[in-house]
Design brief:
Length: 172
């Protein structure tokens, strides 16, 4: 999965975009604060689409600072295969946790260079006129129906899309 990085100054709609994606994406988990353990456990348990807001902490720290392994887990999660290995259970048995899933980040600052290289960066800008806030409680049911229809559409045409990708897409 290529990741999506929403960036821009304050109040350009990064959080709102993440909220909308959270309503439409498959098994989405929207958070502005998530430990690395919560991230890989959520992905392992339900193939979660991770939506991380306020992701300024996705910048590699200097060698002298304590390093959160979240960046390393996110770097590995763009392709199938790599696992986060952690000890679990009473016997501290090494266990592999899947980290492969779609991810979207929102931040004002740049991300770690390698993580940014695996992301499509969308720079958002303010509109000249304000956009009305969505009433999420009122819109949630409609968005859920839209998400369900998109899921059915994807399942119905997954084979066709896969065959087109394998044959090579002619964009002309």
């Amino acid at each position: 999965y290529p990741y999506v990085h929403l960036t821009g100054t304050k109040r350009v709609g990064k959080s709102l975009t993440l909220k909308i994606v959270g309503e439409l994406a498959f098994n989405a988990l929207f958070s502005s604060s998530m430990s690395s353990a919560a991230a890989y456990r959520a992905v392992e348990a339900c193939s979660t689409t991770l939506l991380l807001d306020e992701a300024e902490n996705l910048q590699k720290k200097s060698k002298n600072e304590g390093q959160d392994d979240k960046i390393e887990i996110l770097k590995a999660g763009y392709m199938k295969g790599p696992k986060a290995i952690r000890c679990s259970g009473d016997n501290h048995e090494p266990t592999g946790f899947d980290v492969y899933s779609p991810k979207m980040f929102g931040s004002i600052q740049a991300m770690d260079k390698i993580l940014a290289d695996r992301a499509i960066t969308l720079t958002l800008a303010r509109k000249l006129r304000p956009i009305a806030d969505l009433d999420f409680p009122a819109e949630r049911e409609r968005m859920a129906r839209t998400r369900d229809k998109l899921y059915v559409l994807q399942m119905e045409h997954a084979k066709d899309v896969w065959e087109e990708i394998r044959a090579g897409i002619n964009w002309e």
